[in-house]
Structure formats: C-alpha cells, structure tokens
Amino acid sequence: MTSPSFSMTGLPRCRRALGAGLCVTALLLAGCTGSLGDTEGSDGTVPGGGGPVTGGVARGIDMPGAPKYHRLVRLTNSQWASSVQVVLNLAAPSSLSDAFEKPVAGTTDFTNNELLLSVNQRSWSDYQSAAEALADEVTASDAALAKVYPDTDAAGFIEAVGRRAYRRPLKDGEVARYTALFETGTAMPGTKSAFAKGAQLVIRTLLQSPHFLYRTELGEARKPLNGYEIAAKLSLWLRNAAPSDELLDKASTLTTPEAIAAVAESMLEEPTAVKGMRYFHGELLHFDRYATISKLGVPSYKESLNAEYEESAYLFFEKIFTEGLGVKDILTSTKGFVGPGMASLYGLAPSGSGVVERDLGPDRVGFFSQLPYLTLNALNEESDSIHRGVSINLDVLCTPLGSPAPDIPPVPPLEPGQTNRERITRLTSACGGACHNLLINPVGFAFEHFDGMGQTRDEENGGLPIDSSGVYSFSEGPRSFADAGELMHHMAEGEQAHLCYAKKLASFALQRDVIPSDLPLVETLAEVSRGAGGSVKEMMLELVKNEAFRTRMGGTL
Fold this sequence. Notes:
Layout: H1 11-18, H2 20-30, E1 45-46, E2 51-52, E3 56-58, E4 61-63, E5 72-74, H3 77-88, H4 121-138, H5 142-148, H6 154-166, H7 172-186, H8 194-206, H9 210-213, E6 214-216, H10 227-238, H11 245-249, H12 257-267, H13 271-284, H14 305-322, H15 327-332, E7 335-338, H16 340-346, E8 356-359, H17 371-376, E9 378-379, E10 382-383, H18 385-396, H19 420-429, H20 434-445, E11 459-460, E12 464-465, E13 470-474, E14 477-481, H21 484-493, H22 496-510, H23 519-530, H24 536-545, H25 547-550
C-alpha cells in the first residue's frame, strides 16, 4: 500500500475538510497523485483492525465519545502561534492567533481534540490573512529576513524554511514548485530586494499549506509512524510547537520505543513542557472557572482572591510535574500554594505579597481539600456538596453518572435544626437513582467540614454537628471513610483515580477520545502511576513508547 496523499480526485472531500480556498492551494502545491486514503468503514470500525469507534464503560471508567483517528489533525491555535515562531525564528509566539476562531469547549475532555479542529471559511480566512501579515513582517527588510534565514540563496532558503514548516524535508517536486514560486516573487513590483520578494511569496504559501497546518499520520494502518511524524507528534505535545531544526536532525533515529522515550525524557525537562502540562491540568480541572467566582453576603470574600486561587492551583500542579510527583501526591499532599489574601482563610500568618508554598496541616489532604477547589464548588458561604461530588466523580474518578435530570430544583434554604447533609439528602431522595445516593452525595458529603469559603469547621447552622462519613463503591469495591482525608487516601491507594488520570492524559496526548478499546493503554499508564515513584513524567514516557502513540491507528483524512 502506498502512502495516501492529496489528489484532485479527492477535491470534494478535501473541500469539506479544509475549506475550498485552502484545499485548492494544498492540492496544487502538493502536486501528488493517488487517493485520500482509507476511510471509516461502513460498519463503524476503523480500517486495519482499529475496532469500534464508539465509547462505553470499562473497569468502571467512563470512556465516552467516538474517535475518528484522523490522519491529518489541524494545529490548535496555540500550536500554530508557537509553530510560526519556530518556522520564522520569531522572538515569541505570534499573537495573531488571538483573533482566530476558538473551539467550543465542553463537548470533549480537551479543546485539542481532533473532533474540534476542523477548518471552515472563517478559519481559512484567519490563516490566509495571518500568513500574509507574517510574510510581510519578516521580509520588511533584508536584516529582518536574515533572522529567518541567514544567507541569500533561494535553494537553501526553500530547503531550510520549508523543512521547518512541513516538519520534514521537502520532496524534489515540492522544491521545484517553491523554486518557481520564488522566481515569480522576485519579479513582483515593490521596493524590497528580489530575494525578499521571492521569500515573501514562499512564506505566504508555506504557512497556508496543509503540510504546515496539519500534523500528519499517513503511514499504513497499524504501522509505525515515520521519524518525522514522531518528531512532530512529540514536539507539538511536549513543546506545543513544531519541531526545532535540532529535533528534525534526529528524526531518522526515532524508530524504536527506547529512542523515542530518550528524546521525550529530555524534552520533559524543558520549560515548554511545564507550559504544556499547565494547559493540560487547567482544562482537566477547569481552572478558567476561578475567574468567575463571586460571593454574595460573604465578608471574607474579595474578588482579588480569584487570581490567587487560579495561580495557586496552577503552581500546585506545576510542582507535581516538575518535581517528579504523581497522582498519589495530587490526592494526599498536605502542602499547597498560598497567596496573601488566602493566608487568613487557611488560618496562617501572611507570608509576603506573592503566592508561596506552605504546609496546610493534616486537615488539608490533597488538592481537593484546598481553598481553590472548595471555594469554586460552593454557593456563597455554604458548601455545595452536589457540585463537589459531581466534579470528583467526573474529573477525578471518571465515574459514569448519566445525564442530569431535565428540571433540577433549586437548593432550598437551610431550615432551623437542619444540616446541609440532611437538606441535600431530602432534596435528592426523590430522584430515585443511584447517581446521587451512591455516587454524588457520599463524595460531596465528605467535604462537609469545609464551608463555602473553604474554611474548616466542626459545626454548622447554629452548632449542629457535622457528619462527613460515607461509603463509596470504587471500581475495586466499596470503601468506607470518615472524612475527605480518608476518602483521598482510598483514592490514592485504589485503582480508579489512577485509571481516570491515565485516560485523561492519553486523551490529551493523542488528541482524541479514549474509549474501551484503549483500555490496555490506560491500564499500563495506571500501573505506572500506582507503582513506586509513580510520577506523571513516568506515565508520559510510558505513553510515548506505547503503540497507541507510535503507530497510525487508521481512520479518515
């Protein structure tokens, strides 16, 4: 089987996938023959033995969705911005992507999912105008162009910049077409040098090519990706950018799991990997919601706390990643990051104007016993056991909860002599489903010793004692607990939270829905997570060695 490629015979499908203008540009520049390649089978399976493409539940973990295993996955807006920085040797990622159309969040675990990365007429217009602006900017003078490419020979320029843009060496036919395009540019009117005018037209075209805008997996189904595709996949995940010249030089060596892991291990120590994992954890646990916190009638709340909550959360997970920690530490660490406004809420003395790490004491077990999470999942000064329970079930345990009831009644005010637990139990008892009584409520009630501002308390509503005990049925069986601390330790020692984190990490890295057929991968990553050390970095290295990362799964263009 030959590697699939673009062709004019595939124009109708290409036009639907890429947008008319971009598709025509792509096909003409690619100059390829053949077909667009394998398509999804009529029986709903992926060609080459990929299996069903629909989600379900496996080992108690909810794995919904319907991955398409696209062989061309468009760059995200942030990947585009950092990639043009690499291609053009810019000082910083391009800010032009700020105006690009953004994906609609909420339908997939992460916004880098293949299903959200289509190209429509708006996207095509964005890419076209951005390519023209960047090409004009970097060729404004010969000195500016020298930062992109230091010499003045057209062949060297096309080879060097083309390789960065395509993330592989250009083929002879591609070089010939770009050379002709360069020569056309040199004859165009204007005050720029002939070299700058030729380079400007080439750059405009390179940045609109699908070979730049899409990461490819064009090999045969179930066959290893080539070294350049691996280099691009690693770099776009761990650096959020196109591979550097140095990484492209190593691409021919990326043929074994060990070689791939060795390169990945080095990349994991770079600042760009920290930034990428900041993006992962931010979307995993919805850190963007901290900016939306508001409280009515709560004297201890100030809007300035929102920024502290967000930075505190990011710094906690940054430490987890950079210091070689893992899921167990996320769930059980008693240290956290505290801003000046947060200190008094924790009962701590102020410690300067910044957000710094502090010991939070034995009552604060894991991230979910810290102020950011607890304050976000609360209603004014009252705890919100329903939302606390739902978020832990969905984001940390991947428990299938099903769809919420269409008409959810508001939580009534507390009655005299009534605890929040009694109020919520009465409110949800009529739903008749196991979701509240066996899954949501027990987890939510575990945090009843924390009020709506996340402060600890031993009694509520005029001195009533608090009951935070419960029983939860994990994938490995039921466990009883006295409070949130015991619940977190059960989660750290059991398998479900590790399986859930592994599923989310794989989904982010592979840029697709992870479904029951991926269970062997998820179990392998979870086993690493539960083992000695069990760091997030070790999970990531195990992932890049796995066939799910290294091979083409099949699917449509």
